Amino acid sequence: MATSSPSNELRLVAPRRTVSAHLSDLWEYRELLGQLVRRELKVKYRDSTLGFAWSLLNPAFVMGIYYLVFQVFLKSPIHPFPIWLLSGILVWNFFSGSLAAGTGSITANNYLIGKVRFPREVLPLASVGAAAVHWFLQSLVLFGVIAAFQTGVAWAYIWPFLIALVAAIVLAASLAILLGAINVYARDTTHLLELTLMAWFWLTPIIWQWELAAGKLREHGITTNLLLVNPMTPVIITFQRFLYGKAALGTGPGRRVLLPEGGVTWYLRNNVVILAVSVVLFLLAIMLFDRAEGNFAEAI
Amino acid sequence: MDAIEARGISKKFRIVTEPVHTLKDRVLHLRGQRHEDFWALKELDLSVPSGQTLGMLGHNGSGKSTLLKCIAGILLPTTGEVRVRGRIASLLELGAGFHPDLSGRENVFINASFLGISRKEVDKRLDEIIAFAGLEHFIDNQVKYYSSGMFVRLGFAVAVNVDPDILLVDEVLAVGDEVFQQKCLDRVAEFQAEGRTILFVTHGADLVRRICDRAIVLDHGNLVADGAPGEAIRIYREHLHGTLNEAAAPVAGEGHRHDPRIRITGVEVRHPGRPERTYLYANEPLTIAVHFEASAPVPDALASIEVFGHDRTVVFGADTDALGLDLPTLEGRGTIEFRVDSLPLLDGAYPVGIALKDRAHGQMLDWRPPEETSFEVVNRSRVVGRVALPMTATLIASSIPVAS
Q1: How, if at all, do strands B197-201 and B214-219 pair?
Q2: Nearest 5 degrees, angle CA A30-CA A186-CA A196?
Q3: B100 and B207 in a common domain
Q4: pTM for the complete prediction?
Q5: Which of B22, B77, B97 sits opposite A116 (nearest CB)?
Q6: pLDDT digits 0-9 by tens, B333-384
Q7: Is B79 on the interface with A (CB under 8 A)?
Q8: Which chain B residue has the Cα nearest residue A116?
Q9: CB of B348 within 8 A of CB of B315?
Q10: Most buried residue, A206, A212, B308, B367, by most Cβ within 10 Å?
Q11: Which of B241, B271, B289 represents a domain boundary (last residue)?
Q12: With contacts defined as CB-CB under 8 Å, which chain A residues touch B82?
């Protein structure tokens, strides 16, 4: 039997471990994370005839409905509306999907907790991973629409966009870990989260535009930075800025502003802040997880 | 070098008397749930040198599985810490990571990644794993269609084929058919030869004696013995008896039919060497006394005795005739004693059946079934098996040099 494993690696089992111990443990189990993401996707589509096509059909269908409601009936001036909508809603769907799945991830895998050793954080992270795969697949629909309308993206905003992308993933991961641990001890977190996510969705400029709220705030002399308290707002507007490609519609007196016009630096700065906040939150989540996981096996 | 080093391990379990799961309940019971604390392990220290095979004995609830789970990292200790050197494969819950909706093959990869094994490594060993489990024809079926035996076989195959440094085994050898059990034991022996560390939880004293270098005994979360397997098994038996004696004594069966003239009033197992002990060591004397009461004279009677093994085969059977005792006509009260001066048995519990018969007609006058009487022998030595053969080993010194 070939011995390829480093047999001198030392593992510590103790009631408390440092954040760095958690992180190196996670790194060692990165392959498990991949397997669990795969498993989650496989199980989800195992017995369905259309399989992965479902993840594409869903945004296509949503797009169709919103297109009818907002562009055809409500005569929204934003054109092409599907690009505007999808650029915001897909990342939101990833975010809310990660949180919803991540919250139940530890209780749903209770059959593993008392029986197998692995870093427990892998479970919520796998939920985030599976949601991310869906997200990237669904983005194909968006890119298809962008190609069809030949609008092109705002390449100048590629860096804010990439940072926002990473920030969204780190933020989703932190909250999934946090909520997953809390849900072990208070099972109705799932229900509470559903309501919170619904409110959060409408508090984020996805269907409506940033300028709608920002304009109102300015009228009352309140700083528009208030809107940035919602960490998903800078992420979403950056996605819109990059993928929709412009911040305003038309020219002259009929000009209609949709997004902040602070330029690349404004977007860059805000996304760096959100990324930094998310990373700190991630470390805090691991710390809290460390305190919580000691009694997982019994509480589940 | 120590493969496992546990220091001051305690594990507290909360036995919740009124479970609180919802937020509403949490708010209403701000002071927390009503619970009792139960310490499954108490300040336990244990070092296992690399390459040792350690047996863990203890009655149900003694904490041995909890200890194994803490070493595996499945449970986190409440206090103390465990340092583990090398890769652990645990055979605690075989196939625990299996997802019913996925195929056996897909589950092998997932199960292996729970053990920290990369996909590439599994790819190399996949055929070996499938062959070991004997599941060549079913590997692409969903696991939910597997029998429990197939499930466990696949789990075991993954665990032992991923090249662990430390193997944790918990009573799993009890599952599977005999061929598979033999395969498992062969693999354990192979691991021993390769110098891997093995921790073995079992109730089977024989297995411990056969394969372990050392054994520990746990009782109520405390380590009560640590040493050579024979000695540990003796202490384990003592503790087991302590627990059993607390339970109600078995009710003597009085209900069966017997000849109206005579009945057996009692059967007594005596250990003339050590009357205070509940068990014997090999080569100690044993007496089984059969008390009877005859309300009318019974001529031509004989008493028989049968000693059974754990598998209910007869180890020894005889009657008073065969033993050269010609019983006179029995009347009133009396006792027939069966005596062994030096018991040539090694280990185990031996049920004893007693009968009084009519010699002429072979008819049963009264009897005591083997469920009611037994004696127990504990093996302190390192020899194994059932019979204490008075064997010696001698080297006949030879002056002839070996040709090289």
Answers
A1: unpaired
A2: 85
A3: yes
A4: 0.76
A5: B97
A6: 999 999 999 989 888 888 898 999 888 777 888 888 887 788 888 888 778 7
A7: yes
A8: B74
A9: no
A10: A206
A11: B241
A12: 12-14
Is there a domain that residue B397 lies in? no
Total CB pairs under 8 A between chain A and B? 128
Q: Which residues fall within 8 angstroms of residue B324, CB to CB, at 6 or more apart?
A: none
- Residues B15 and B153 reside in one and the same domain: yes
- The CATH number that applies at residue B327 is 2.70.50.60
- Largest Cα–Cα distance of chain B, in whole Å? 90
Query: Do residue B217 and residue B80 come from a single domain?
Result: yes
Residue A193: which residues within 8 A CB-CB, separation 6 or more?
A99, A100, A103, A179
In a domain, B184, yes or no: yes
Question: Same domain, yes or no, for B189 and B326?
Answer: no
Inter-chain contact B163–A294, Cβ cutoff 8 Å?
no
The reply to whether residue A10 touches residue B121, judged by beta carbons under 8 angstroms, is: no
CB within 8 Å: A12 and B83: yes
Q: How far apart are CA B37 and CA A191, in angstroms?
A: 31
**Which 3 state secondary structure label does DSSP give B2?**
strand
Instruction: Read off the CATH number of the domain in which B7 is found.
Output: 3.40.50.300
**Is there a contact between B94 and B255 (Cβ–Cβ < 8 Å)?**
no
Q: Which amino acid is at B127?
A: D
B134 and B11 within one domain:
yes
CB contact under 8 A, B85 and A7: yes
| CA A134 – CA A265 distance, rounded (Å) | 30
Asked whether the beta carbons of residue B82 and residue A28 sit closer than 8 angstroms, the reply is no
Q: Give B122's contacts in chain A (Cβ within 8 Å).
A: none
A35 chain-B contacts, CB cut-off 8 A: 109-110, 113, 119
* Cβ atoms of B286 and B338 closer than 8 Å: no
In the predicted structure, residue B270 carries a pLDDT above the cut 80:
yes
Whether residue B302 sits in one domain with residue B352:
yes
Could you tell me if residue B202 is inside a domain? Answer: yes
Q: What is the mean pLDDT of residues B181-193?
A: 84
CA distance B154 to chain A (A): 16
Higher local confidence (pLDDT), A232 or A297: A232
Interface test with B, best of A115, A125, A179 (most B CBs within 10 A): A115
In A99-108, which positions are buried (b, 16+ CB within 10 angstroms) versus exposed (e)?
bbbbbbbbbe
Same domain for B345 and B205: no
Note whether B97 contacts A112, CB cutoff 8 Å.
yes
Contact B266, B291 (CB under 8 A): yes
A13/B70 Cβ within 8 A: yes
Model pLDDT for residues A218-234, shown as the tens digit of each residue:
999 888 888 999 999 99
Domain with B331, as residue range(s), is 262-378
Contact B26 A12 (CB under 8 A): no
B269 CA to chain A: closest CA distance, Å?
Answer: 45
In chain A the first and final C-alpha atoms are separated, in Å, by: 38
Contact B110 A39 (CB under 8 A): yes
Spatial contact of A273 and A160, defined as CB atoms under 8 Å apart: no
Chosen domain end from B211, B241, B271: B241
Look at residue B249 and tell me if it is in a domain: no
B233 and B276 co-located in one domain:
no
Among the listed residues A101, A88, A14, A90, the one whose alpha carbon sits nearest the alpha carbon of residue A55: A90
